[in-house]
Design goal:
The complex is a heterotrimer of chains A (about 300), B (about 525) and C (about 325). Chain A contains 15 helices and no strands. Chain A has about 300 residues and is an all-alpha fold. Chain B has about 525 residues and is of the alpha/beta class. Chain B folds into 3 domains: about 250 residues, 3-Layer(aba) Sandwich (D-Maltodextrin-Binding Protein, domain 2); about 170 residues, 3-Layer(aba) Sandwich (D-Maltodextrin-Binding Protein, domain 2), CATH 3.40.190; about 70 residues. A 4-stranded mixed beta sheet of chain B has the order 2-1-3-13, covered by helices on one side. In chain B, strands 6-9-5-10 form a 4-stranded mixed beta sheet. In chain B, α10 crosses α11, α11 runs parallel beside α20 and α20 packs across α22. The radius of gyration of chain B is 25 Å and the shape is globular. Chain C is flat. Classes of the chains: A mainly alpha (about 300), B alpha/beta (about 525), C mainly alpha (about 325). The interface between B and C is large, with 46 and 35 residues.
């Protein structure tokens, strides 16, 4: 049912649009700057000459990024880790979050505490590494896929959403009708949780896409490396110390020049894929439709 | 890839043929080859720099394998995560046979040497490494420098002592000086006048605003050492690669507390107040600085070489500055690192062929091995001449590879150049096809800086307890000194408080205790030298 | 509804407990993967917490390393700069919270009111895009825009008021503002996503009913939307309290310099400098533990407060 707007409403909408557009422009300009910088001469960028349009136009940054062979292997691996990894993360997180909303779960508070503590206290890199080694997962994809299986933060947010926006009556009546816990979860709760599932897909997906530290530590075989790992190699350069010999400095400076040229284009190349995913997920941010269908 | 393999084979063939063709007796290797009768396989762990290509494909390792009959398996780690990986490897006891190429600190040597994880090398250095012994005759402190606290040597030391390394170089735009009719500055007053002249003639900088001196206070591009040396100090600019300590009559002092340091700050402050130092000196990023340099806006700065900052043709305008003095008639001094490093290679306790490994390392202590490791196969990129080594023309060799510099090419395909070795390359860059700008550059600091080189407070070994105390005291004290230096220069803190508030704060931070610890270590170091 | 279940809970006996578990075994299956994950990768390695109290040497293992008790923490507390570090860390977080916490909520509420879906998608996508810009590039942009010689900000100010350029990054008094505002710019759009999802979870029938009762959009926003996402807001706030002692290292490190250090030096950069001197694994573990204890305590405090005022809580 479409709600009609009163005069007050129209004023409100006007103010709303104005404020939003202001924020939009404030955020847009620096992004536009990044796009301009990605096709500009790095010296011009660093001298601060790039304002409204590129200076020293050159697509060299993009050429170099795509010509860099390992980028394609990295892309393939990252897509794999992201897709499979996100699926695993969703499965683990959603089921855990749902179980935690149910009062019938004995030890619910205890489990919450156990999970929350892990956000603050941990053994650290070396003991975790030793555990992974014990399980023979070093240098395998499992180290990457399983180590990011879930996060306490995301479990908590999901649980809050499920607990507050899925009415208890629906679950109650389903139980009276003889539905099992699994049934309630799969046929009622999940469809109604589409918004938060979309959010978690985004959170886990982006997290996996951008991750590099676990790959750095647990993978030795460069055929398994992710995109971010390769990109970091280009961007992390050696400090040029003026005390170096001239040849060393020359080599380092050359490498730095390449990195400068690629710096902005790399951001665009590695984030555009993820940004394309979001419009698809936005569809799920409309829950009202679902609720009506389920109620019926 | 195929191109690389054929290139490698071509290089190998050329090497063998040129070995016969050379008429200079610099094939000095005394280590009998091959080292192993039957092929030995060993593992090494090393840090891979961003510029390195694939080590397995590099010429150097293939050459060595053919020569010595030892095959190395590589466990390469990206250099920025090397420390973490090293700790993990040590914790999980999956040790390689050798840690190679650096990343082992002096503290590591003391700790792990003491625990037996790194084996003592004294025996091998004495008995199995004739090249090393020959190098020690030439440079005695090569051996003594690497002796840790318990009398053992745990890592293979490295020395490259030449006029061309181990120090920072200041350059000034000679074209501008000539246009203004000024001479190269000799004293601090000269420098002030020259920089002021630059400031008053902004038209000299054609592409952007004129900046007499620019740098990055957060990094090694600072004006400090130039002024400190003029006042007779070798210490006070650890950020530039030197030290913060000054030895005065055998006593270890902190350079930032000495009166000459205050004089230096007063001078720098004057430059800053009169607009001769970039207003962004304290806050800009290195990219912003290098853009200004590439745009030829800066009158004076320090660098490894001017053609690293701008193009080769433009670099001809920038000439090396000799050390300055505060007053005429003073002795000129300039700090140079000892050129010796430790921690380039250690042998672990799991290595079943420690002697063979030591012999493998020994090759690079000969002139022949060192030059091959650093420069690649002979006859391709360089060849022997009577005085030493010369670069063959570099420009056309690398255009195909997409790299612009000899070094970049070398690090990608030829050799990672991280081995322990002993080399003296003062005579490296003479003659023939070497680009004139580069030749002039090397000649200039052989002539203008080298005569004044002095060594400064050394890098030493400490016990674990000493190390811990020194670390925490140093962090606080260095922070404070850095902040105050900036504030003194900018005028937020008055230099009148130098002797009062400033010194009092350093006392509170236990500077005397830090100096005490360093003095103990220094006395111990001197005793070792005898 | 809930009353029935509550009554049952109060009269538990072991037999009934057992029955309850068996009755709802499926719930335990649902929670099992997460629990196994935590047991394996978080609790199995948790003996590593001791590193903070030992002189850890990797080859000796954790139990083989010498026990030193609170020595590392004492060294940290005794640092000349200890007070300043803690104060900077705390103030930066408080400032971030005060400015940065409400903004995503407001954005979400505003976006939710937009009816044209094309514009809505465009705004959302642009607003969250900054999240993907790496810290290194962000700091490069900040340095560029704030540069006194040719930065955008100075040029705009000079154009409007004729004032001389100011070196913002050299001024300790402005540092925290720069840090916080750039953080708000970078993360508000992304942070709004959770609230947008939560808003989608509000029953549209409530809005219909309110309109029939004569409420306008603003009133509906304040009385339906805002309370509707209050559980999410509360939980996000509590979680945020659990990171008050943590300030990310990289961004501070890149924006820090000798002139603004007294406002910009935080615990993480201090630990980094100690590590540079001599890779001190145990020291950073000790400081990390100290931070975690305080963070956790804050979380518990705010959780209790939230429980007391009847809002959502963690446990």
């Amino acid at each position: 049912m479409k709600i009609k707007n009163t005069a007050v409403d129209r004023a409100f909408i006007a103010v709303n649009y104005t404020l939003l557009t202001l924020c939009f422009l404030l955020v847009l300009y620096p992004l536009y700057y990044v796009v301009c910088a990605s096709v500009s001469d790095p010296v011009e960028v660093n001298l601060g000459h790039v304002f409204l349009y590129p200076r020293g136009f050159s697509m060299e940054g993009y050429h170099k990024v795509f010509a860099y062979q390992p980028v394609w292997i990295g892309y393939r691996n990252t897509i794999f880790y992201t897709v499979v990894g996100t699926a695993i993360s969703l499965a683990v997180t959603l089921s855990c979050a749902y179980a935690l909303t149910r009062k019938e779960l004995l030890g619910r508070g205890f489990f919450m505490m156990v999970i929350t503590i892990t956000m603050f206290f941990g053994g650290g890199l070396i003991p975790t590494y030793l555990v992974v080694r014990e399980m023979h997962m070093i240098n395998t994809v499992w180290a990457i896929l399983l180590l990011g299986a879930t996060s306490a933060h995301n479990i908590i947010v999901t649980r809050t959403f499920m607990g507050s926006s899925i009415p208890g009556e629906i679950q109650e009546s389903a139980m009276i009708d003889g539905a099992t816990d699994f049934g309630i979860f799969f046929r009622i709760v999940l469809p109604l949780s589409m918004p938060i599932i979309a959010v978690m897909t985004l959170f886990f997906g982006v997290g996996r896409w951008n991750s590099y530290f676990n790959e750095l530590i647990y993978l030795n075989d460069s055929k398994l490396y992710s995109l971010q790992l390769y990109l970091r190699e280009i961007l992390v350069r050696n400090q040029i110390s003026e005390i170096m010999s001239a040849e060393d400095a020359e080599a380092a400076a050359e490498q730095a020049r390449v990195a400068e040229i690629m710096k902005f284009s790399l951001i665009i190349v590695s984030t555009v894929p993820i940004m394309c995913v979001y419009p698809f997920l936005q569809k799920f941010f409309i829950k009202g439709v679902m609720l009506g269908a389920v109620k019926g | 890839m195929k191109k690389l393999v054929s290139l490698t084979l071509a290089l190998l063939l050329l090497l063998m043929s040129s070995a016969l063709a050379s008429d200079v007796d610099v094939y000095t290797n005394k280590q009998p080859m091959p080292i192993a009768e039957e092929k030995i396989e060993l593992t090494m762990m090393a840090a891979r720099q961003a510029m390195h290509g694939n080590w397995e494909d590099m010429w150097w390792f293939q050459y060595m394998e053919d020569l010595t009959n030892i095959h190395w398996n590589f466990d390469l780690v990206p250099s920025d995560s090397y420390q973490e990986k090293k700790n993990l490897v040590l914790a999980s006891q999956d040790l390689p046979d050798m840690f190679y190429g650096g990343g082992i600190s002096k503290a590591d040597e003391v700790t792990y040497g003491g625990l037996g994880i790194f084996i003592p090398l004294n025996d091998y250095l004495e008995n199995s490494m004739p090249n090393f012994k020959a190098a020690v005759e030439k440079w005695p402190d090569l051996y003594t420098y690497a002796i840790t606290l318990d009398g053992n040597v745990y890592s293979f030391p490295y020395i490259w002592r030449s006029a061309s390394s181990g120090t920072t170089k200041y350059v000034i735009n000679k074209d501008w000086l000539d246009t203004l009719g000024l001479d190269m500055p000799e004293t601090l007053d000269d420098l002030y006048n020259v920089l002021a002249a630059f400031r008053d003639h902004p038209e000299l900088s054609e592409k952007g605003p004129m900046i007499p001196f620019s740098g990055l206070n957060n990094s090694s591009i600072q004006i400090d050492q130039l002024v400190l040396s003029a006042y007779g100090l070798l210490g006070g600019s650890a950020k530039q690669g030197f030290t913060n300590y000054e030895v005065v009559d055998g006593e270890v002092k902190y350079a930032a507390t000495l009166p000459q340091y205050k004089d230096a700050l007063t001078y720098i402050k004057k430059l800053y107040d009169d607009g001769l130092i970039d207003s962004e000196y304290f806050t800009q990023t290195s990219e912003q600085w290098s853009a200004k340099g590439a745009n030829l806006q800066i009158g004076m700065y320090n660098c490894a070489a001017p053609y690293v900052v701008c193009s080769l043709e433009e670099a001809a305008s920038y000439k090396l500055m000799a050390p300055l003095v505060a007053e005429e008639g003073q002795e000129k001094i300039w700090p140079q690192t000892s050129g010796i490093q430790t921690g380039r290679a250690v042998i672990t306790c799991v290595n079943s062929y420690p002697e063979e490994t030591a012999r493998w390392i020994d090759y690079t202590y000969s002139t022949e091995g060192a030059n091959l490791e650093v420069c690649g196969p002979e006859g391709i990129l360089w060849h022997w001449v009577e005085e030493g080594v010369v670069w063959v023309s570099e420009e056309q060799k690398f255009k195909d590879s997409g790299l612009n510099s000899w070094s970049g090419y070398k690090l990608a395909y030829v050799s990672p150049d991280v081995s322990p070795l002993a080399m003296d390359t003062s005579l490296f860059y003479d003659l023939e096809d070497y680009p004139p700008v580069k030749k002039a550059w090397y000649a200039s600091y052989r002539d203008q800086l080298a005569p004044y080189y002095k060594s400064f407070f050394p890098d030493m070994y400490y016990t674990d307890e000493e190390q811990m105390e020194i670390s925490s005291l140093t962090v606080d004290i260095e922070s404070y000194v850095e902040q105050c230096k900036a504030k003194f220069i900018v005028g937020e803190m008055s230099l009148d408080t130098f002797e009062t508030d400033y010194m009092a704060a350093l006392e509170k931070m236990q500077l005397p205790r830090l100096l005490e610890l360093q003095q103990t270590a220094y006395d111990r170091y001197l005793a070792n030298l005898d | 509804m809930a009353a029935q279940l509550n009554v049952q809970r109060r009269k538990r006996t072991p037999a009934q407990l057992g029955k309850k578990i068996i009755l709802h075994w499926q719930l335990y299956v649902l929670i099992a993967p997460a629990l196994i994950y935590y047991a394996l990768f978080h609790y199995w390695p948790i003996y590593g917490l001791q590193i903070a109290f030992r002189n850890f040497v990797p080859t000796l293992g954790i139990t083989g390393s010498k026990w030193v008790g609170l020595m590392h923490l004492k060294r940290f507390f005794n640092s000349y700069y200890f007070g300043m570090l803690v104060r900077n860390t705390f103030v930066i977080n408080l400032y971030s919270l005060a400015v940065g916490f409400p903004v995503p909520i407001l954005l979400a509420l505003m976006i939710n009111e937009v009816e044209r879906s094309g514009y809505k998608r465009l705004v959302q996508t642009v607003l969250y895009a900054p999240h993907f810009i790496s810290t290194v590039v962000l700091c490069g942009m900040i340095c560029s825009f704030l540069s006194p010689s040719n930065g955008l900000i100075n040029m705009i100010i000079k154009g409007f008021t004729g004032r001389e350029p100011v070196n913002y990054l050299g001024n300790p008094r402005i540092f925290k503002t720069i840090y916080v505002l750039s953080g708000v710019w970078q993360s508000s759009g992304w942070g709004a996503i959770v609230y947008i999802a939560a808003l989608a979870g509000i029953d549209p029938e409530l809005h219909e009913a309110a309109t029939i009762d004569g409420a306008n959009r603003l009133q509906r926003m304040l009385h339906i939307n805002l309370p509707g996402i209050m559980p999410t807001i509360t939980i996000m706030f509590i979680l945020r309290m659990g990171s008050m002692m943590s300030v990310g290292f990289e961004k501070i490190f890149l924006l820090q310099n000798s002139l603004n250090m007294e406002a910009s030096d935080v615990i993480s950069t201090y630990v980094y400098r100690i590590g540079l001197q001599n890779a001190q694994y145990s020291f950073s573990a000790a400081v990390g533990l100290f931070n975690s204890v305080i963070n956790f305590a804050l979380l518990l405090v705010f959780n209790t407060i939230s429980k007391a005022v009847g809002q959502s809580r963690l446990f």
